[in-house]
Amino acid sequence: MNSFLKPVNDFISSESTREYAKKEFNAILWVALITITSVLLDKVFKLFRLWSKASKIPGPPCNSFFGHGNLGSRENFIEFEFEKFSEVLLNQIDWSLINLDLLWESHDKYGSVFKLWLGPTQLLVSIKDPTLIKDMLLKAGDKLPCNGKAFRLAFGRSSLFFCSYDQAQKGRESLAMELDDKLLGKANVISRNVVNCIMEGVDANMSIGSVDCKLISQHMAFTILGTSLFGDTFLAWSKATCYEELLMMIAKEASFWASYRFTPFWKWGFWRYQSLCTDLKCLTLDIVQQCGNHKLSFHMDRNSQIGTANDKSFSQELGGDINARGEPCGNIMGLMFHGCIATTSLIGSILERLVADAEIQDKIYSEIMKVKQGSVREDQDVEEMLLLLATIYESARLLPAGPLLQRCSLKDDLILKNGMLIPAGALVVVPAQLLQMDGSSWGGDASKFNPYRFLSKAVKGSDSVHDTSSTEEAADPIQCSFVLNDPNDNAAFLPFGSGMRACVGQKFVIRGVATLFASLLERYEVRLHPRLGNNSKSTTGPDIVFVRRSR
Ligand code: HEM
User: Fold this and answer.
1) Is residue 503 part of an annotated ligand binding site?
2) Would 341 disulfide with which of 85, 219, 416, 519, CB 3.0-4.6 Å?
């Protein structure tokens, strides 16, 4: 054995072998050193490029290496959308508006585009000019994934909302196709069954007395969304109430847990929150399976190969194939969350404005009755209810949800219409909420509720159409008929975003909510609870009553 190992030992201990090993080791060290140096140089080069490109954008001078801490932390800015959506339910102190105001004030000082350094490598660019905003939203298709921490913690990875355009494209197209089918297929995007189910809920609530505006809006939104994604199976699903409660509990806590810089694994509360999220996932899988089986039994033969993508239940498709990279059902939970919270907010906003403006409510009722008279169908012909649609647009314009739109171009620099260059990777934000109340885009009554701003008057016997933003002028419906303006014609109308990542649900939600309100107002008058009057200081929105109309 020893005689066999001897030549090997001699070889290892020989001078030339040691020399060779030393050289090899040195070579490896050199390669490592060169690689690290080139990576570092590349980073430094990119940093200088970012600094030099950003230097042409106006903005406050940055004295600190860590950026403009005094104008709000990075988290404050990037969690806006989520924070604000949750706030709508929580009704917390509106601290984010303080930052928004600062942002707005900075625009007054530095012009329609200005920059802020959130850190040495993190650049924020804010745009206020509506034309430049439209242009930017058409060109910048990405969203920074790091901004969706709250979404990710709650629902896992998803290929919608906080990701690059390439990742979101397939999911967006599939969702848009499905919603377009619903829009084209029927006069009403939400079925009679859904409306009846919601009305039964309202009836049941009225037998108790007044209802909380936020709670009733939430339930309406949840039912519309659930039935749109899972079909009418959702109405018979025994766990629907539990699902709604879980979703809202998660909405309340999500931004809190996401606000930790390091995920707080050491906190018991975090694990309790995670178990809520797991329960939500299990319930989502349950309803996806139920609606899948339902669809399969009615529309396709489970054993046949014919039923491919087109025949698949929409929720199965979104939750499964498209989301193969992510968490099962991540997209569906994200959609339920976003859709429910935003739609709750819109419905709540419409209800609050209707109780505050009895005259508009009466006019909408007359309009509904006028349209109904000529129609033998049980469905609501909402396309003809122009004042109702204008009221929805106007409520969306004044909606406090989603005050900040955010975009990014991850690969290429953005060149705006005015020639200004925004470097790739910069977080571009639009203070949409303030823009929607800005007098220069909406006139002197920008902060007031005036649905007529979305209607033009077509004078009988002539082809001319003219603006009716003055309520008094518009109050005479006998002399003229109205034409509904496309709200997106005004570049400052951004409740659903715009451009490459605009809300996929916009048309659907407007038609759905219009159908719901047409049925609701046909049967009920919505009033503020008499005991509370106009001085209601309820923390969850005013208490309202639905008073049945006598026919
Ligand atoms: C009143 C209700 C709603 C409001 C106010 C609203 C608003 C928004 C906003 C502001 C955005 C970001 C747009 C942008 O960055 O340009 C968005 C994105 C989105 N919305 Fe909505 N939304 C509503 C309801 C819905 C509904 C009902 C659905 C679907 C059923 C939906 C699906 C989506 C999707 C999929 C995205 C993200 C698209 C992407 O990541 O590319 N939304 N929504």
Assistant:
1) yes
2) 85
Residue 507 Cα to ligand 1 midpoint, Å, equals 11
**Is the beta carbon of 495 within 6 A of some atom in ligand 1?**
yes
- Cα 343 from chain centroid? 10
Residue closest via CA to ligand 1's atom 3 equals 342
Q: Does this model's pTM top 0.90?
A: no
Q: From ligand 1's centre to the CA of 335, what distance in Å?
A: 8
Query: Which residue's CA is the nearest one to ligand 1's atom 17?
Result: 503
- Look up the ipTM and state it: 0.96
Please identify, by atom number, the ligand 1 atom nearest to the C-alpha of residue 501: 41
Is the minimum distance from the CB of 197 to ligand 1 under 6 angstroms? Answer: no
CB 340 within 8 A of CB 218: yes
**What type of residue is 28?**
I
Q: Which atom of ligand 1 is nearest to the CA of 165?
A: 41
DSSP assignment, residue 157? Answer: -
Those residues whose C-beta lies under 8 Å from the C-beta of residue 278, and which sit 6 or more positions away, are none
Quickly tell me which residue has 């990710």 as its tokens.
152
> Using an 8 Å Cβ cutoff, are 542 and 352 in contact?
yes
Query: Is the CB–ligand 1 distance for residue 148 below 6 Å?
Result: no
| Nearest ligand 1 atom to alpha carbon 162 | 40
What is the full per-residue pLDDT of the chain (551 aa) written as tens digits? Answer: 566 677 777 776 777 888 889 999 999 999 999 999 999 999 999 889 888 898 899 988 776 655 554 444 444 444 444 344 333 333 333 334 446 777 778 888 888 999 988 778 888 899 999 999 999 999 999 988 777 788 888 888 778 888 899 988 988 988 888 888 777 665 566 777 888 888 888 777 777 666 788 888 999 999 999 988 888 888 888 999 999 999 999 988 888 888 887 888 898 999 999 999 999 999 998 988 887 644 433 233 333 333 333 434 455 555 544 344 445 578 888 889 999 999 999 999 999 999 999 999 999 999 999 888 766 566 668 888 999 999 999 999 998 656 688 899 999 999 999 999 999 989 999 988 889 999 999 999 999 999 999 998 776 555 555 555 555 455 555 456 778 999 998 999 999 999 999 999 999 999 999 999 998 898 889 888 776 555 444 555 677 888 888 76
Residue 64 phi, psi dihedral angles, 5° rounding? -95, 145
Helix (H) or strand (E) holding 97: helix 95-110
Name residues whose C-beta falls within 8 Å of residue 314's C-beta, 6 or more positions apart in sequence: 174, 175, 178, 229
* Distance from C-alpha of 125 to C-alpha of 498, rounded to nearest angstrom: 18
Residue 226 beta carbon below 6 angstroms from any ligand 1 atom: no
Quick one: DSSP state of residue 426? P
Alpha-carbon distance of 251 to 83, in angstroms, equals 9
Alpha helices in 423-551 (DSSP H): 432-435, 439-442, 471-474, 506-523
